[in-house]
Amino acid sequence: MPTSLKQLGQIASIRSGHTLRGAITPNPEGDVRLLQIKDLDQDWQFDHKALPTVVWEQRIAPPFLEQGEIVVAARGNRNLAVVYRGEVPVVATSQFLIVSLRRQEREIVPEYLCWLLNHPMIQQWFHRSGTNIQLITKSALLDVAIPVPPLETQLQLIELQRVWQKEDELINKLQKNRHQLELGILQKLLKD
Predict the structure, then answer these.
(1) Could you tell me which residue ranges the Type I restriction modification DNA specificity domain spans (predicted)?
(2) 79: closest CA among 120, 130, 18, 131?
(3) Do 90 and 160 fall within a single domain?
(4) Fewest C-beta atoms under 10 Å: which of 44, 71, 103, 105?
(5) How many CB atoms lie under 10 A from the CB of residue 183?
(6) DSSP string, 105-161
(7) pLDDT of 64-110, one tens digit each?
(8) How far is CA 155 from CA 5, 31, 70, 101, in A?
(9) What global pTM score does this model have?
(10) Co-location of 184 and 110 in the same domain
């Protein structure tokens, strides 16, 4: 049976991150943690102290991320998507689009959707505009065609992605160790 295709807008809703007025001034006494583009490089979901806290002074309640929502960096050169699985309430700023699978949508795993959104083919589709400043619009995200294989296949792809990511980490460590070994050999040769 062929894999069905659905537009993201058929299976999920998308909202923009929260717009804050003025500059973000971190406050250690703050009651809300903020996720900004620069935080994506850090392990912010497991080290919540990496995120700045602010005192929430808005009239509305903080629009905290919910478990399983996908945060997509809408601006910048890397439009990285991340599934929120953190334990600490976090508000994503307006630099992000937040994808929420519809409650009745049980045939798609958030991590699978995240893997698709990070895939080079999808990223290339986003960047077809050819501008230097990359921007993913809500309408472009809603139009993304999502292949929907059986749940078992999605889970296998997620596990493969984890293995590939671990492999990349190990290769990077090996390259770093090799570089340090080469440097040590050269330094020893220069001393002799």
Answers:
(1) 6-173
(2) 120
(3) no
(4) 103
(5) 10
(6) --S--HHHHHHHHHSHHHHHHHGGG--SS-B--HHHHHT-EEEE--HHHHHHHHHHH
(7) 999 999 999 988 777 889 999 888 889 998 999 999 998 777 789 99
(8) 18, 36, 17, 17
(9) 0.82
(10) no
CB of 93 closer than 8 Å to CB of 51? no
Same domain, 126 and 178: no
The answer to which of 10-19, 36-45, 67-76, 134-143 has the lowest mean pLDDT is 36-45
Q: Are residues 49 and 142 in the same domain?
A: yes
Backbone torsions φ then ψ of 123, nearest 5 degrees: -60, -40
Angle (nearest 5°) at CA 99 between 94 and 100:
125
Please tell me whether residues 158 and 145 are part of one structural domain. Answer: no
163 and 141: one domain?
Answer: no
Angstrom distances, CA of residue 57 to CA of 17, 18, 132, 179, 187: 17, 13, 35, 50, 57
Q: Are residues 22 and 79 in the same domain?
A: yes
Domain extent, residue 157, equals: 150-192
Structural tokens at position 33: 């943690």
Task: Return all residues near 100 (Cβ < 8 A) that are at least 6 apart.
Answer: 12, 13, 14, 15, 66, 68, 69, 70
Task: Measure the CA–CA gap between 44 and 173, rounded to whole angstroms.
Answer: 22
> Which residue from 99, 43, 46, 91 is spatially nearest to 70, judged by alpha carbons?
99
